[in-house]
Amino acid sequence: MSAPSSFYLTTPIYYVNDAPHIGHAYTTVAADVITRWHRQRQEPVWFLTGTDEHGQKVMRTADANGVSPQEWADRLVESAWKPVLTTLDAANDDFIRTTQERHTTRVQAFIQDLYDKGEIYAGSYEGPYCVGCEEYKLPGELVAGTGEFEGQQVCAIHGRPVEMLSEQNYFFRMSAYTQRLLDFYEANPTFVQPASARNEVLSFVRQGLQDLSISRNTFDWGIPIPWDTTHVLYVWFDALLNYATAVGLDSTDPADQELFARTWPADVHLVGKDILRFHAVIWPAMLMAAGLELPRQVFAHGWLLVGGEKMSKTKLTGIAPNQIIDHFGSDAFRYYFLRAIPFGQDGSFSWEDLAARYNAELANGFGNLASRVAAMVGKYFDGVLPVGGAPGEAEEAVSAVAETAVVDSEAAMDRLALHEAISSVWTLVEATNGYLTEQAPWSVAKAEVRDDGTYSADGRLATILVTAAESLRALAVLLHPVMPRATQSLWELLGAEAVLGTLGSQPVADAARFGQLPAGTVVTKGASLFPRLEDPTEA
Ligand code: MSP
User: Fold this and answer.
1) What's the CA-to-centroid distance between 257 and ligand 1, angstroms?
2) Which H or E run includes 48?
């Protein structure tokens, strides 16, 4: 029997010429939240990330540092790219490196097959090449340089001069796929998302595609072309194939074959908008040529901007994820970038905005709600959840908000509107805070207190606290994909693990069903989910 198909999502594989900055972390965190959400739905998931290690950009950095490209790649992967996944709390299932044998041999088999099918031919090419993009540019794509590059034509993304290259190359007959791609986009309107990205791709392909140079022979840091080892494969052709090689493309090993069968085709390739065309044009053309099924979606997110420009190491505007996480924690990092920037659009990062949201939404909004409820269950019921009475109108209203939050966040997640999904869940934080303010359990307690200082287990006070605890239970489930640490603490504070099982095993679809925490559940105060912080700009 074949295994059920997995929700398969990928990040781009990152260049190892430098260490990660928060722009890279943004792609990884978004991918992690989406895959955790699918896991929380109790679906099988496969989440792949990794590193792109060949090409001129990496080779030059290694040269400049006086080590071989392989040594450089090993060093960066171990010291920076793998550790950042832990820093970000990313729960990837696999990590592919393009220098691994499982990748290089399968890539060689793939291109040999295209060559044998007549999809690749020898030719020559001359044109401007941007090493930052690892791409030949069309003259019309260049812009006038500024500052030290005044008077020169530069790459629009990197702002640096291009190099004129003239080489003998092998070419992939991509021009032959223009119409097939247009037909495919037409038949699959959600293949490229969001709409702005789809429009960009459509207008680019409608101009007609050129054949693509897929080999280089002026340097040797790449996968050798099997029928002509004086050439190495163009780094993008090599890199794109990671999505298939990592899940066992053409492997004869039964375990790989099983993985391929349940993951392929990928559900979502998550990419930054700068690398959209590679994924939405070249990659599907490669797969068409090989006769493989195409991915279901390529989603392009926007850029993190600094001073209105894409944050980048080249422009010295990169901020390392640790600079933020050491102070605010990984949950706040994950929450902030996905909540503050509509997913698919550009957004500017500012310390002030992050600190303001941390205080208002996380510390005062969500964290304080949890502390207040736990403290009151402690104070009035010795930390043991009471039975609670029949829900009234106000309680019904809170559980109705929870139900809507589940429906809306599910729908938003399916559209990858991550900011909307979080906002939908947040309606429950706000409604529960509002409910507590209105119901004022501290006043109800004064009215209901018995002579011996205890409270009825099914009076109003008990009902209010049970309702608030149920709301927190639902929030722990719905926010677990976004903030795995704080929600785990909340789950422990609610005593939920002992009565309901692990947080990860709670289905999203069931989150809004109130009445799950039984009377007798032991609630503890625990540490603050989001401690108040000093202003980092003054630290
Ligand atoms: N190696 C290629 C991808 C190959 S995928 C088959 C590459 N690597 S990269 O390291 O330069 O970029 C990886 C990802 O980081 C891209 O999705 C890119 O958009 C993202 N970001 C890099 N800087 C960014 C910002 N300033 N803002 C948001 N994302 C950015 O391209």
Assistant:
1) 30
2) strand 45-52
